[in-house]
Amino acid sequence: MNKEPMTVRGHELLQKELKKLKGTDRPAVIRAIAEARAHGDLKENAEYHAAKDQQGFIEGRIKELEGKLSHVQVIDVTEIDAGGKVIFGSTVKLLDDDTEREITYKIVGQDEADIKTGLISYTSPIARALISKSEGDAVEFKAPDGEKSFEVIAVSYD
């Protein structure tokens, strides 16, 4: 199976979530199940069923995170000499040719992407168009709502 690229920050966030699930959430739900069992009849015990549902969710999420973490390649962009080019993990400031608005995106792994916070997946059309571009370059790509064109204003690696 291919390794999935991920930024250092994304890797740390997944590890932090996994640690919380295993160290805090899992023990809490186990206590809740034990407490609900102590109340007697399990067939009509809503607390017990809710705790079991929560336990299923937690265990599923733990498995999912462990699977993702076992298949990632952490890329620290601060250790790469990209020569001013846009690469995975770089932050790119763009000027939208149509609206004259400035937009900033950081190119990240698929599990980290969140367009609302400016984190775009390296597999997105705009990221694919940006890769290997430099400051001053024009970028054109097909977006779901039509052709878009931008100018790369700045590239940083933080």
How would you characterize this protein structure?
This protein has helices spanning 8-37, 46-70, 125-130; strands at 4-7, 72-75, 91-96, 102-108, 119-121, 138-143, 146-156. It is built from 3 helices and 7 strands; from the N terminus they run E-H-H-E-E-E-E-H-E-E. The model has no long low-confidence stretch (mean pLDDT 92). The protein has 2 domains: 4-75, Transcription elongation factor, GreA/GreB, N-terminal domain (Helix Hairpins), CATH 1.10.287.180; 79-156, Transcription elongation factor, GreA/GreB, C-terminal domain (Chitinase A, domain 3, Roll), CATH 3.10.50. It starts with a strand and ends with a strand. Strands 5-4-3-7-6 form a 5-stranded mixed sheet. It is α/β, with parallel strands linked by helices and 158 residues long. A hairpin with a 5-residue loop joins strand 3 (91-96) and strand 4.
